[in-house]
Amino acid sequence: MASIIFSGTGRYVLKPMMMVSNNSGHKVDGFSGKKQGNRDGAVVANVATTPRDHLQVSTIDQKQQVVDWTNHVAWTSIPHERWEGELDVQGQIPLWLNGTYIRNGPGLWNVGNYNFRHLFDGYATLVKLHFSNGKLIAGHRQIESDAYTAAKKNKKICYREFSEVPKPDNFLAYIGEIATLFSGASLTDNANTGVVKLGDGRVVCLTETQKGSIVIDPETLDTIGKFEYSDNLGGLIHSAHPIVTDEEFITLLPDLINPGYLVVRMDPGSNERRVIGRVDCRGKPSPGWVHSFPVTEHYVIVPEMPLRYCAQNLLKAEPTPLYKFQWHPDSRGFVHVMCRASGQIVASVEVPLFVTFHFINAYEEKDEDGRVTAVIADCCEHNADTTILEKLRLQNLRSFTGEDVLPDARVGRFIIPLDGSPHGKLEAALEPDEHGRGMDMCSINPANLGKKYRYAYACGAQRPCNFPNTLTKIDLEDKKAKNWYDKDAVPSEPFFVARPGATEEDDGVVISIISEKNGGAYALLLDGSTFEEIARAKFPYGVPYGLHGCWIQKLPGETSLKVLLLQSCPR
Ligand SMILES: CC(=O)/C=C/C=C(C)/C=C/C1=C(C)CCCC1(C)C
Ligand SMILES: CC(/C=C/C=O)=C\C=C\C=O
Ligand SMILES: [Fe+2]
Known about the structure:
The structure is a single chain. By secondary structure, the chain is mainly β. It has one domain. 8% of the residues lie in helices and 33% in strands. It has 8 helices and 35 strands. The strands form 9 sheets. Strands 1, 3, 4, 7, 8 and 35 form a 6-stranded antiparallel β-sheet that branches. Strands 2, 30, 31, 32, 33 and 34 form a 6-stranded antiparallel β-sheet that branches. The longest helix is centred in the first third of the chain and has 9 residues, at 146-154. Mean pLDDT is 87; it is low at 1-64 and 562-571. It binds the ligand CC(=O)/C=C/C=C(C)/C=C/C1=C(C)CCCC1(C)C, ligand LQ5KYKQO and fe (ii) ion. The ligand CC(/C=C/C=O)=C\C=C\C=O binds at residues 193, 357, 388, 409, 438, 440-441, 468, 547.
């Protein structure tokens, strides 16, 4: 398959399903807002055919065999606002794989002539892979958050992003009140981190600001509107990674005023979160950053990381080394265990210092009488080293020269006793050299959420590197890892989809999107069990790196939402 795409100056005519127009019918090239001619009405991806600078420079230097990463497609803004088309597939997509994988991530890192600083600042780009009877329709779409829409209109940043603060006059021009620059109104709603399917079918994109919860149409990727929480729980931020199943949505709301966390739960069909309980922080001066957290069958695990939110840094205009956070080793690290049913804290232990974005899973360990004796919680742990945040600055990601600069990481396993002991343990769940001492962006078989499990999928490292560059299957029982690697390519989070009816934990496929050194990108399917490639399909343009995804299973006999709507509203 693999058509040679960016080779000439001619236009590359794509298959008829694609769309490159914005709502006004004009093709949009990033933020330039340039109107592109569409005289013949042909469905043409102008962006895919215009040779882009990075496609010319991103070549292998024959002498050094080192790729110029300045314009690596992983860290280059997506060149157009939306696209959809069928991809040629090399290999075999399993016929049982029917549904849509949607991945979210910060895919646009410039506005006007201004270039963003940090990976997490970029405006949200959704990428979809729709699998149906062995065929693959792909697409992408920018999320129409207020932050993105305002930036596009004003050609300036108008809201506070992860590391960016708008100039007061940008913000004034848009919102109109200086008093609000330091209030919740100035915070971004750029939902660029994850995407979840709620039990009621709504698909919601998320980031760490509560206002950045945005409902999308999983078929078209269109922005439907804000997900408004109808409770009065308040607060401005939440964990970027709620626990979402068909039955519930659980998340943590950090309390920055009276340091602690509210543990809250929402039912399918509802927009109202109800409080399960509250954890008071044991360390000072503020809650630890809580990007994610795990649950077990009976407990919610609340990590209190010594990397804490920092009120002063929240207000600063210029980025500080740790952005909105500060490292407080003296105030130590803790893990709290809350009973889901009663909201009572059943354990609150001090643990060794740790730094993590992502918990992998957690489960309960029982004695022979079935009594829970401990909770095991696994995470991608950065050896208590905060420099990983700095490594994710775009300048650093784009300046790889072959030196091994990625800090070491491991599968950190917390062992939290439930017998009243004051301390918990943190150790590597397997020898980190198994996965090149790189470890982040993980998934598991969702059937094992909160239960004892054997396999995790994540990005590891083939060194030297400056960013995790392998897909890794971790066997926590045999303490072994299998690694997939494509030189100079950047793979995104390996996402496990179970085969319907499977009984083995690793019976399924692993989906990832690979940003290639030559400016291209491809969707990759690995067998969940053997971890061998089973199919790949090249995009007709470069797709940048992205973060987290979700799977929307097509049920047998299911009719699409659009068809149902058309049937219920006959003209
Ligand atoms: C993409 C990712 O993993 C994290 C994104 C985090 C964001 C956008 C955090 C934003 C924040 C603000 C804009 C101000 C308040 C603090 C904080 C939640 C860090
Ligand atoms: C890309 C990333 C965190 C993303 C948050 O959602 C972490 C990468 C860590 C590298 O080792
Ligand atoms: Fe994340």
